[in-house]
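Worked example (supplementary).
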Amino acid sequence: MECPKNSDGAELIVAYAAGMLDSGDQAAFERHLKSCASCRQMAAAQQAVWSALDELSPLPVSSNFDAKLYQRIAEEQQLGWWQHGWFRADWSWRPAMPVAAACVVLIIAFLVKNSGPVITQQEQVQPKLQIEQVERALDDMDMLKQAGVEFAFEKTTPREQI
Amino acid sequence: MRWRWSILALCALTSGMIFESTARAQGRRSAASRPPGSARQGKGPVQTPIEEFETMSPAEQQKALNRLPPQQRQKLQERLQRFNQLPPEQQQALKNLYNRLHQLPAERQDAVRKSISKMSQQPPERQQAMRQELRSMANMSRDERQAHLSGPEFRGRFNKKEQEIVRDMSEVLPPR
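After joint prediction of all chains, the assembly is encoded as:
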């Protein structure tokens, strides 16, 4: 017999452990097991799984289980959308924690990246001068000179306090 | 339940941080949008853009000038040179007038500019009469000016157009 591991052996080993092989195949596989340590090991592991499953006993179900289940389904269908998520007492918040933590990290990173130094009084006092402002100031001063009203300030203090 | 309170606290914290950041950004934006000099109103001497330019280092001045096309740059440099060649007291008087003008609301500034332009289109003797009127008003208090402008003597000496010119231009005169 060819080693099952070289072909579709897993199914054969599972079927053997489950006792589902016919007598011919079972005898052939058992002959192979005597000479193949690897298959022997896999078959033993599979049989251990079956044994463990056989030992499991189902949990007892209450006599009115079906009635309670259908009642709960009906109640769920009657709840408003706002009661389905955030305010349910049995709703688990645990999965939301990693999401919330990730959001906080992203927001902090955004704030750190975008928050420059707070504008100080000095910075407010000396905004960056645009050269066009100088041109406009010269335009205004030419116009005021043309008006010929500089006399209004000629006898005042050197710099008027505004 | 503990998880629920933790998440609500985290939400409150992040909301606070976002609010604080937004307020700070708005502060920066409003400070940046203010025209030069406006932040200093009421806090001592006001610098004109020309004075601000002159306080810049030569490298900064050159960098600012380099933003203009060559012809415009040369013209501006010549205008600055001409301004600096004026007598210091005249320079200072013009700077003070400029600051007075820029203390006015934008629409009044425009009205003053238009009136100066209109005055230049009047006959020389009328221009001289209006300047003389403004000179006499320069020594008056604010209330006296108001009374003078609405008085019969003023109305008798100037036509409506001239009255408007003098009224608008009187707004740049310093208060006495």
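Two points are worth noting when inspecting this output. Confidence is low (pLDDT under 50) at residues 122-127, 156-162 of chain A. The longest helix of chain A spans residues 37-55.
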